[in-house]
Amino acid sequence: MNSAIIVAAGKGTRMGPNVDKLFLEVAGRPVVAHTWQRFNDAKCITEIVIVVRDGRQSAFVELATRYNLTKAHRFVAGGVERQDSVWNGLEALSPGAEIVAIQDAARPATSEALVAATIAAARETGAAVAARVVTDTIKESADGKLITRTVDRSRLWSVQTPQTFRVEVIRRALGEVRRRGLLVTDDTAACELIGQPVQLVAAVEPNPKVTVPGDLAYIETLLRQPQP
Amino acid sequence: MNSAIIVAAGKGTRMGPNVDKLFLEVAGRPVVAHTWQRFNDAKCITEIVIVVRDGRQSAFVELATRYNLTKAHRFVAGGVERQDSVWNGLEALSPGAEIVAIQDAARPATSEALVAATIAAARETGAAVAARVVTDTIKESADGKLITRTVDRSRLWSVQTPQTFRVEVIRRALGEVRRRGLLVTDDTAACELIGQPVQLVAAVEPNPKVTVPGDLAYIETLLRQPQP
Fold first, then answer.
1. Which residue of A has its CA nearest to B153?
2. How far apart are the C-alpha atoms of B192 and A25, rounded to whole Å?
3. Which of A18, A33, A124, A135 is most buried, judged by most C-beta within 10 A?
4. Any bridge partners for residue A127, and if so which?
5. Cβ(A50)–Cβ(A68) under 8 Å?
6. Are B185 and B86 in contact (CB under 8 A)?
7. Torsion B9-B15-B19-B20 (CA) sign
8. CB count, 10 Å around CB of A172?
9. pLDDT tens per residue, range A133-142
10. Residues of B with CB under 8 A from a CB of A
11. How far off is chain B from A87, nearest CA to CA, in Å?
């Protein structure tokens, strides 16, 4: 059985103070309602765990009603760091969950095909992540003012979500992170720690994250396009 | 005096075979006509050299008429590599040119404020480039299939255009590249070769490049927004 965890507990300060970016309206509904809808409609997903900030659960219950999001779902409270929120999500999975796709709530345009591709890869190798080759020229700067060197971009990938795992693999990886008291940038970094290889799954369609206000116009355009 | 070189001689194969991405219509006119218009209207720019592919000059002459692009401009033919095209552009500058802003023709949303900021920085230090801090999580992969390691993104910048220089600096830098028979990814990499520091100028507004078909909807949205 394949489960999804939608991580919706972050604060996301780059959107401005007191702005909950997950509830910004884009293409007619809040950002997080798009994300949830995609996983609600995805045939490859059986249940959804949504990790929310304390006190925000009622707003999510309302979304389920308003947008008819009827696939089996439950809510858990987020932790201090993103990795704690994911951990809480893992604790809330059904006992039958074999594969889990972990999704940023702020990534509302993820396609079902991409979710399914990461599930197939994770079933085979244990861990997989949606990613895109870096096409920009990348420079390194030690001080943020002068270029220190040109980075060889031919080996670089920009990673997205879903980040998808066999449930026992990500439990073991994040368990190790917690035991050692580490902070990881994303769930695949936890896998690196236990020597678990992570497979890259090339995202063909754009799969952007809402980060700064300038992202919204683009994402609006994307979400209004008909889905395949 | 500040000049601009618009590099419009590339083939850009990622858009599909036999597609000249510079002449794709977006927001009511060809991509390159937007780029040219921005430099035509920029008060900080006195003359424009446009580097075109052999045989394409008449299409550009037509653009000038159709969109009333009346600022002093001339055309030169491109070379085999991008760096050869830039070299040809440098050869065509007026003798009075002190600063040159080198621009990808496929970057149609560059703001006048950004051009002016790179000019001011280049005047001070010799070389400057529009850039954006990398906000995505970046992974390295040796084979394009498995993640090899997580890259520390805190020092990484994605560079754009304009790349702007004192004319004598970029002449010396690219001259060295040519003498040594090297191939560089961009004009600032040539500066690294002669020990010329390059200053990063943070691009506040989005400044995307048309690369793949999926970019067009976003760029359409951007170009239809009123300019400040």
1. A140
2. 45
3. A33
4. A165
5. no
6. no
7. negative
8. 17
9. 888 889 999 9
10. 129, 131, 133-142, 144-151, 155-160, 185-186, 188-189, 192, 197-200, 205-206, 211, 214, 217-218, 220-222, 225
11. 20
Residues of B in contact with A102 (CB under 8 A): none
Average pLDDT over residues A57-67: 96
What are the two backbone dihedrals, phi and then psi, of residue B2, each rounded to the nearest 5 degrees? Answer: -105, 130
Cis peptide before B162 (omega within 30 of 0): yes
Across A19-126, the runs of DSSP E, i.e. the strands, are: 25-26, 29-30, 47-52, 73-77, 99-104
> What is the average per-residue pLDDT within A48-52?
98
Q: Do B205 and A186 touch (CB under 8 A)?
A: no
What is residue B228's predicted lDDT score, i.e. its pLDDT? 61
For the whole model, what pTM was predicted?
A: 0.82
Residue type, B144: G
pLDDT at B222: 87
In A, which residues are within 8 Å of B151 by CB distance?
Answer: 156
Helix, strand, or coil (residue B114):
helix
Residue B98 to residue A133: CA distance in whole angstroms: 37
Nearest to B130 by CA among B190, B196, B204: B204
Phi and psi torsions of A84, nearest 5°: -70, -35
Helix axes A31-41, A57-66, angle to 10 degrees: 60
- Segment among A91-100, A190-199, B126-135, B208-217 with least mean pLDDT: B208-217
* H helices present in B57-166, as ranges: 57-66, 82-91, 112-125
How far off is chain A from B204, nearest CA to CA, in Å? Answer: 9
Q: Does the beta-carbon distance from A145 to B200 stay under 8 Å?
A: yes
pLDDT under 50: residue ranges of chain B: none
A83 Cα to chain B: minimum distance (Å): 15
Both tokens of B65, joined, read 């008429």
- Upper half-sphere CA count for residue A7 (Cβ side, 13 Å): 27
C-alpha of B35 from chain center:
10
All residues of chain A having their beta carbon less than 8 Å from the beta carbon of residue B129 are 139, 147
How does pLDDT run across B84-121, given as a tens digit for each residue? 999 999 999 999 999 999 999 999 999 999 999 999 99
ipTM (interface pTM): 0.87
B221–A217: do the CB atoms touch at under 8 Å?
yes
| Smallest Cα distance from A52 to chain B, Å | 23
> Which residue matches tokens 């990814």?
B185
Phi and psi, residue A100, nearest 5°: -130, 130
d(CA A167, CA A90): 8
Q: Which pLDDT belongs to residue B135? A: 82
